[in-house]
Design goal:
The protein is built from five helices and 13 strands. By secondary structure, the chain is α+β, with helices and mostly antiparallel strands. This is AN1-type domain-containing protein.
């Protein structure tokens, strides 16, 4: 089509021209050294903050200089969140019976939540939630180590020894009282009174002690023998006896138990709970059956017959 001036009319364009730089504004070049491909949907690496194409988007593909930083930061954030947020109670409850042996009611259900006892560490229904309702004091807490036979024997031994510590204390008080009374009657020094008391007690022990007449005088050891109340049937569970220094503790035990009417089942077998043992008060320990009585004991000492206190344990308790 020609114009009035005779020059041809310009043709109408059917496309839109883009200004210089608009292509780069749409996408981005891959930062990989030998790639630099223009990608209209580039990927951002959260570890090194670089921009890459589809082929080099992974940390391994572009040899990331800060590999794993994004994963570590995410893991630390999750751990911090979990430590600051209290644990949620699971919505999935596992029904179980009440821990009381006499109860069959189901707990830990949507309608009946179990009540935890912090003492015995068990779960109970509402009816048995109180300690006195489920006999809490006689239950071993869950997760604790039950007492072994050795523990039970040790506790029994300590209990027996505590009785004789009290017995020793009363004897000491009685002796001290007698010494004070004598001191009032006869004005003597305390050392003289104490020595006199010791001599009188020793003379009384030797005078009234019983034993085998065939034992030579120079071989005799004079002892005061006591028996705990739970071991003897005699009205007076004590006595003064003399034994041969060369005798074993086991032989002395046999003679003493017979004299004090104490049942002795040591030779019948069985456990330690039925056996008799000899406790040396001055030495503060149980004597072994095989040792000679004259080794630990001297004239004037006291030994006690105990039952169920276990084998000898030196230095178990100080008397």
């Amino acid at each position: 089509m020609a114009t009035s001036s005779g020059s041809p009319a310009p043709e109408k364009e059917t496309f839109t021209k883009m200004a210089k730089g608009d292509v780069e504004a749409i996408g981005a070049h891959c930062q990989m050294a030998y790639c630099h491909q223009l990608d209209f949907l580039p990927f951002r690496c959260e570890s090194c903050k670089g921009t890459f194409c589809l082929d080099h988007r992974t940390e391994t593909a572009h040899a990331c200089k800060n590999e794993g930083a994004w994963a570590r930061a995410r893991r630390e954030a999750e751990l911090k969140k979990s430590s600051s947020t209290p644990p949620m109670r699971s919505s999935l409850l596992t029904p179980q019976p009440c821990a009381s042996s006499s109860c069959k009611e189901k707990i830990n259900t949507p309608l009946k939540e179990g009540i935890h006892c912090s003492t015995c560490r068990r779960y109970y229904c509402v009816k048995h939630r109180l300690p006195e309702d489920h006999d809490c004091k006689n239950l071993i807490p869950l997760g604790t180590r039950p007492k072994t036979t050795v523990d039970a024997q040790r506790e029994k031994a300590l209990g027996a020894f505590s009785k004789f510590k009290e017995w020793n204390r009363k004897i000491s008080i009685s002796t001290a009282t007698k010494a004070k009374d004598m001191e009032k009657l006869v004005p003597k020094s305390k050392a003289t009174v104490s020595a006199a008391n010791a001599r009188n007690a020793l003379m009384d022990l030797k005078k009234n002690a019983k034993g085998e007449a065939s034992i030579p005088q120079d071989k005799r050891v004079y002892l005061l023998v006591e028996a705990s109340a739970d071991t003897t049937k005699a009205k007076h569970p004590s006595g003064k006896f003399f034994y041969n220094k060369e005798w074993s503790v086991g032989r002395v035990l046999d003679a003493a138990s017979k004299a004090l009417q104490v049942e002795n089942v040591n030779n019948r077998g069985g456990g330690e709970e039925a056996k008799l043992r000899v406790f040396h008060v001055e030495g503060g320990r149980l004597l072994d059956f095989s040792e000679k009585i004259g080794t630990p004991c001297v004239t004037g000492n006291t030994v006690v017959l105990l039952r169920g206190v276990g084998p000898p344990a030196p230095d178990l308790i100080e008397v």
